[in-house]
Amino acid sequence: MQFNLKTAQAYASDDILEEWIHAYLTTGEWANPDFSDGLKLQKRWWVGPVEVSLEILTRCCGPEPEMAYRMNPVDWDRRVTKIADNLVDVTQLPPLIIEYQASTLRIADGNHRHEAIRRKGWSRCWVLIWYDDHKTWQASPYHA
């Protein structure tokens, strides 16, 4: 399976988005099985894919000192450049996986993609947003 906007939208329209998320996180070039396992520890409520401005997303990974998951600047730049160099259309990427925390949209998966999109000069991207409780999910401005 290809993991991009089109396949995420298809799974979402069939109301099986979480299936797509775990397949994406456990197979292929973007795999992060530990993250998939963590998501499975409790019930999650999902919204997406939705298109948002890059500016409203908060990265947690990168070379900056304030990042929770700090990377060597050379390794960060190498990976971001590789993604950006091969990027023609933002819809060819898997949507970023975002955690909704007290009105903040924190990038849990896709920090490198976020930076590559920004470097391309694009201002928007596609995301999947998760909520830890039903009440917050229902009240979210992204919930349809």
Low-confidence stretches: none
Number of separate structural domains: 1
In the CATH hierarchy, the third-tier topology is known as Conserved hypothetical protein from pyrococcus furiosus pfu- 392566-001, ParB domain
Number of strands: 7
In the CATH hierarchy, what is the class?
Alpha Beta
User: How many angstroms does the end-to-end distance come to?
Assistant: 27 Å
Largest sheet: 5 strands, mixed
Average of pLDDT: 95
Shape: globular
Helical/strand content category: alpha/beta
- Which strand-content bin applies to the residues? 15-25%
What is the CATH-assigned architecture?
A: Alpha-Beta Complex
Tell me the strand order in the biggest sheet.
1-7-5-6-2
SSE arrangement, N to C = HHHEEEEHEEHEH
Radius of gyration: 15 Å
Element layout with pairings:
Elements: H1 5-13, H2 17-26, H3 33-39, E1 45-53, E2 57-58, E3 61-62, E4 69-70, H4 73-85, E5 96-101, E6 104-109, H5 111-119, E7 124-131, H6 134-139
Parallel strand pairs: 2-6, 3-4, 5-7
Antiparallel strand pairs: 1-7, 5-6
Helix pairs in contact: 1-2, 2-3, 4-5
Summary of the model, kept short:
By secondary structure, the chain is α/β, with parallel strands linked by helices.
Description:
The chain has about 140 residues and is of the alpha/beta class. It has one domain: Conserved hypothetical protein from pyrococcus furiosus pfu- 392566-001, ParB domain. It is built from six helices and seven strands. The chain has helices at about 5-15, 15-25, 35-40, 75-85, 110-120, 135-140; strands at about 45-55, 55-60, 60, 70, 95-100, 105-110, 125-130. The strands form two sheets. It has a five-stranded mixed sheet with strand order 1-7-5-6-2. The longest helix is centred in the middle third of the chain and has 13 residues, at about 75-85. It starts with a helix and ends in a 5-residue tail after the last helix.
